Amino acid sequence: MAIEPGDIRRIVTPAAPITRERMRADIARMLHEDPDEIGGDDSLMDLGLDSMRAMNLVLAWSEGGLELEFSDFAETPTLNGWWALVSAKQAARA
C-alpha cells in the first residue's frame, strides 16, 4: 500500500497571529535597525534586506501554518506590501 503525495499533510501547531508590529520588529532585527526606522512604504531591499534574509523571514512567519510563498513577497518588498499578504492569509485561514 503506497502513500499518495496528496495524502501527506503538514502537521503544524497554529501559532499566535502575526501582527504588523511583529513583522516590523523581525525585519528590523534582520537589518540591525530600530523598528521605528522602517516605514511602511520603504523598499526593504533598499534598506539592505537581501533575498536570503527575506526567505528566512517568510519561513519563520510560515511556521505557524500559514502557506506563504516567497515569490509573492518578492513582488512588493515593503512592510505594507508584506503585511497585506500576511493579513489576507490569516483572514482566509480564520
Describe the secondary-structure layout:
Blueprint: H1 20-31, H2 51-62, H3 70-75, H4 79-93
How many DSSP E strands?
0
N- to C-terminal distance: 35 Å
What's the average pLDDT? Answer: 89
Unreliable spans are none
Number of helices: 4
Structural description of this entry:
By secondary structure, the protein is mostly helical. Helix content is 48%, strand content 0%. The protein has four helices and no strands. The longest helix is centred in the C-terminal third of the chain and has 15 residues. The relative contact order is 0.17. The model has no long low-confidence stretch (mean pLDDT 89).
Task: Give a brief description.
Helices cover 48% and strands 0% of the residues. It has helices at 20-31, 51-62, 70-75, 79-93.
